Structure formats: C-alpha cells, structure tokens
C-alpha cells in the first residue's frame, strides 16, 4: 500500500500562519474578524467577501458540538475523515461522477441523514484554501437547505487550536499499513497493559504523560509524529489524548472503541508486555 507522508504539514502551517495574519491585520480579502474587535484567536473567522454560506469560529464550533445545536459534516473524502476528523462530525460518500480535483460530498446522502431542510448544518474541510465545504454548501443551498454554515478554518486549525481529533477503525488500518513512524498509545493502567495490548503499543496512563516526555515513550524529537491513543473507554482515550495535545503534540487522535474492538478490527492478537 502507498506509504503515508506525515512529516510535513503544509496545510496546517498555512492555517496557523493565516490565523496569525488575521491577528495582525484583522481581516482577509476585505473581511473583518472577531479578532479585530479584541476577541481571542478562538473567535476568529476568515469572513471572506461574497460567500454564499457564513462561517463559524472555533469557539462556536466547540459549543455546537457540545450542545448538539447543528449537524456537523466533514466534507472531505472518507479516508481523510477516517484517519483524522473532528469528534462528533459525520461523513458521507462522494457525489457520483465528480473528478477528484473538484470533490464534493453527495447531497443525496446528506438528505437521507438529514431530511428536514431547515436543520442547522456546519461543514468543514482542509482549511482556508480548501474548496470542498464551499462547494458542498452551495449544493446544499441549491437543494433547499436554509441553514448552512462553514467552519472554513477547517481540520488543520482545529488540530492546532483544540488538539483533539478522532480516528476510525479503517483509518487505523490505513495508518497501520502505511505509516511506520506512527506511535500507538495504550492508556490502560500498567497492570492491564501487561496483561495484553496492541502489538507495538506504548503504555501511557493519563497520570504518566509528563513522565513519558522524559523516558522516551513520547516522541520528543518529532512533535509532528502521528499519535493514536486507545484505552478502556472513549472517555479514557479522550482524556489522555487531550493531555498529550496540551504538550505540543499536534497530530494526536483517539480511537473511541475498546482494545478488543481494535484487535478484532485489525485481525491481530494481543501482545503480552514484558515491560513498558
């Protein structure tokens, strides 16, 4: 299988650089931002002129996901979604017959999931220069949806500002096959870890994240390293993922299932650990 290029993240760099530019000049392409009025970077949007759908900020999207006030769609191809997506987002198949260069999700699929055209929708893709959410937003408007917004800062900026992403089982299969530098973190207790874990995984319970920076369990020489966290429950995995992200690792995702789910999905047997 084609190997995954992981060390360079130009889209992420562009997204963060764009946000810094917004802080300095207070706008992009003639638009004003919340930052220009003294808001925080979490309140920033691109506010590009002449767009058919409006934007939400990082802060607004966090609140939307918390209270469920809108349905959030990742408008990227399924494999990109599966490898790393904003937790709580949904994904649908591609519109049939559309070239990859102008990829757009299938509005008919969204219609089956969200038949009520007044339902609030929020779309995102790969950041400021990605057109997938714009194209999907326009097609949804044409299909009669009346409350469509975009998080145009996208997945790279969410990763930079919030830090926590989610990975699906088919995304893990893809990473397992193609990214030999990826680090898998089992956040079970050390006793549970020694009883059996994913082959090659490193054990880092939540309380040991700081210690793991000094003893080699976290890749301190390359903070771009893809890190995938799993545990006894989704809550446990999220807690450790959040703590790792707070330590400047910006490519961290969690798997919501259990170790048994992971092993079964990958067709692997648990490895008995002799040490950490």
- Kindly provide the name of the CATH class of the largest domain: Alpha Beta
Mean pLDDT: 89
Tell me the CATH superfamily of the largest domain.
Answer: Rhodanese-like domain
Structural class: alpha/beta
Q: Radius of gyration in whole Å, from Cα?
A: 20 Å
* Name given to the CATH architecture of the largest domain: 3-Layer(aba) Sandwich
Q: Mind describing the biggest β-sheet?
A: 5 strands, parallel
Written account of the structure:
With 276 residues, this protein is of the alpha/beta class. It folds into 2 domains: 50-159, Oxidized Rhodanese, domain 1; 163-266, Oxidized Rhodanese, domain 1. It is 37% helix and 12% strand. The chain has 11 helices and 9 strands. It has a 5-stranded parallel beta sheet with strand order 5-9-8-6-7. β6, α8 (190-195) and β7 form a beta-alpha-beta unit. The longest helix has 16 residues, at 10-25. The chain is globular. Mean pLDDT is 89; it is low at 1-15 and 20-32.
Task: Provide a brief overview of the structure.
The protein contains eleven helices and nine strands.
What's the SSE blueprint?
Elements: H1 10-25, E1 54-55, H2 58-67, E2 71-74, H3 78-83, H4 107-113, E3 121-124, H5 132-142, E4 148-151, H6 154-161, E5 164-167, H7 169-178, E6 183-186, H8 190-195, E7 202-203, H9 209-215, E8 227-230, H10 234-245, E9 252-255, H11 259-266
Parallel strand pairs: 1-4, 2-3, 3-4, 5-9, 6-7, 6-8, 8-9
């Amino acid at each position: 299988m084609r190997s995954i290029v992981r060390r360079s993240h130009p889209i992420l760099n562009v997204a963060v650089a764009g946000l810094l530019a917004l802080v300095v000049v207070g706008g992009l392409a003639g638009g004003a931002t919340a930052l220009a009025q003294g808001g925080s970077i979490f309140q920033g949007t691109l506010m590009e002129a002449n767009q058919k759908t409006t934007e939400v900020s990082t802060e607004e999207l966090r609140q939307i996901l918390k209270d469920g006030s809108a349905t959030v769609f990742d408008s990227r191809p399924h494999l990109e979604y599966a490898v790393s997506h904003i937790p709580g987002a949904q994904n649908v198949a591609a519109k049939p017959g559309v070239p990859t260069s102008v990829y757009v999700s299938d509005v008919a699929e969204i219609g089956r999931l969200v038949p009520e055209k007044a339902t609030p929708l929020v779309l995102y893709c790969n950041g400021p220069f990605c057109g997938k959410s714009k194209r999907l937003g326009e097609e949804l408007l044409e299909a009669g949806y009346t409350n469509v917004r975009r998080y145009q800062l996208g997945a790279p900026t969410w990763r930079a500002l919030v830090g926590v992403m989610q990975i699906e089982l088919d995304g893990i299969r893809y990473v397992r096959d193609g990214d030999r530098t990826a680090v898998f973190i089992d956040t079970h207790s050390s006793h549970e870890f020694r009883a059996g874990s994913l082959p090659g995984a490193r054990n880092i319970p939540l309380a040991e994240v700081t210690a793991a920076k000094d003893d080699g369990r976290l890749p301190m020489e390359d903070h771009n390293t893809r890190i995938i966290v799993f545990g006894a429950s989704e809550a446990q995995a999220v807690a450790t993922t959040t703590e790792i992200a707070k330590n400047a690792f910006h490519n961290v995702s969690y798997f919501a299932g259990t170790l048994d789910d992971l092993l079964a999905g990958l067709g692997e047997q648990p490895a008995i650990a002799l040490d950490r």
